[in-house]
Amino acid sequence: MNTTAHDATISPDAGFAELTATAGRPALQLEYRWLNRDRQDAPIALFLHEGLGSIAMWKDWPQTLCDRLGMRGLVYSRPGYGRSTPRPHDVKWPVDFMAYQAHDVLPAFLDALHIDAAERARMWLIGHSDGGSIALLYAGAFPDALRGAAVIAPHVFVEDVTVESIAEAKVLYESTDLRARLARYHADVDSAFYGWNDIWLDPAFRNWTITDALAAIRCPLIEIQAEDDHYGTMAQIETIAHRVPHSRLCKLAHGGHSPHRDAPETLTDEISRFVASVERGGARSPG
């Protein structure tokens, strides 16, 4: 059963953002949650989840990072995930689905929450996996609407190891208890899983890349990946470092594809040090 804004029990710091329909997008409800909302003068850290993520799947790490940074946090579930509007089962995501999220859905979500230009200019994006790719695309498209970004295990092109791991995930979803475990985090678990899995396994997606979009990024940026990530190699963040020379490359010895879960203290330390260096003037955007 799909959860809607009318039957959900939510706290005062959580809710559903209503995105009205446009010529290229249906009306959407996006679940969101504020962290440290009482810090009205603090910058916002906005969290963008992975390809099978949601608000709930971040668990406590966004709160930990925001407390460390002294920021407000804003976490939301993209369409198709969590309790946000599910993907209709007869709709397949296009190859450029991440650009659509970065260029259309995320700005509309910020508009719906009345986050103005001044607040956006102080905002940090914290993106993981597909969410990291969306953060990079947003940073390139809106270079003056962001203070900085931290991207964790992002994808900028398609690698064989990624496709192989995603194909393995499909086998596990259809033959083990993975579906039941993911169902705790999504109102429509099949919408969430197959929306992500089908497009990544589509042969047309093998040529997807966002490398040309990276050169437009002007804000401070740190790209982070673990050596034991089974969804991507260091070529991902090395490509970012080459295309965005002012960024900071950070390689973790351990942490898998989800260091916020498997190496949270190390990840929090790395991002916190980077943000502090930016605020001290030690890491500036070019020009």
UniProtKB/TrEMBL annotation:
<dbReference type="GO" id="GO:0016787">
    <property type="term" value="F:hydrolase activity"/>
</dbReference>
<keyword id="KW-0378">Hydrolase</keyword>
<feature type="domain" description="AB hydrolase-1">
    <location>
        <begin position="46"/>
        <end position="267"/>
    </location>
</feature>
<dbReference type="InterPro" id="IPR000073">
    <property type="entry name" value="AB_hydrolase_1"/>
</dbReference>
<dbReference type="InterPro" id="IPR029058">
    <property type="entry name" value="AB_hydrolase_fold"/>
</dbReference>
<dbReference type="Pfam" id="PF12697">
    <property type="entry name" value="Abhydrolase_6"/>
</dbReference>
<dbReference type="InterPro" id="IPR050266">
    <property type="entry name" value="AB_hydrolase_sf"/>
</dbReference>
<protein>
    <submittedName>
        <fullName>Alpha/beta hydrolase</fullName>
    </submittedName>
</protein>
<dbReference type="GO" id="GO:0016020">
    <property type="term" value="C:membrane"/>
</dbReference>
